[in-house]
Structure formats: C-alpha cells, structure tokens
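S2.1 Query sequence (Polymerase (RNA) III (DNA directed) polypeptide G like b)
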Amino acid sequence: MAGRGRGHRTFSVEIVGIGKGENLPPSSVQPTPLFPPLDHKPVPLQAGEEAEYMLALKQDFRGAMKTLPFYIRPAAPKKGQHGVKDELWHHICIPSFKL
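Output structure tokens follow.
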C-alpha cells in the first residue's frame, strides 16, 4: 500500500532553471526601490469654481453618510464601569487592591 505516512517531496535545481555545475545568479546588494518608477505622470488638479463646488459637495455628502444609521462607530467605554476581568486583574497583580 503506497502513499502511507508523510508526503515525500523531491526538489531538483533543474526545475528552477539552473543546470548542474552552473553558478547561482549574482545576488544584489542594493535595496529595492521604495516605489516603482511611474510610467505616466499624474493628472494636474483642476482649479476653478466648479471643481471647488464639487469638492465641497463630496465632503458634505461624506459627512452626511456618517450620520446615517448604517455607519457604526465603536462603542466608547463608559466611565466608572469596570468589568470582572479588570477587578480580578487588579486583585491578582496589585496585592493591596481589595474587591
């Protein structure tokens, strides 16, 4: 019954494209560039009254969307309320703390 136990994988250097007796390609000592070179220049920003109006409209729309009920904000912890975990942690870590 073949195929029992752990899988056995073989690796040969010829698969990668390096033949026997060949040297590995030289390693690069320079760091890679932070950003690739841009093929196209960015489009200049539009200036004018119409562009400013559209920008203000977009910002107003985004602000209005945040007031809708589907936009869920994380609940802020209420002051003065401690959980059981907090009390136990204080009791274990701070010996002078009384429950």
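Residues 49-66 form the longest helix (18 residues). The chain has a mean pLDDT of 76.
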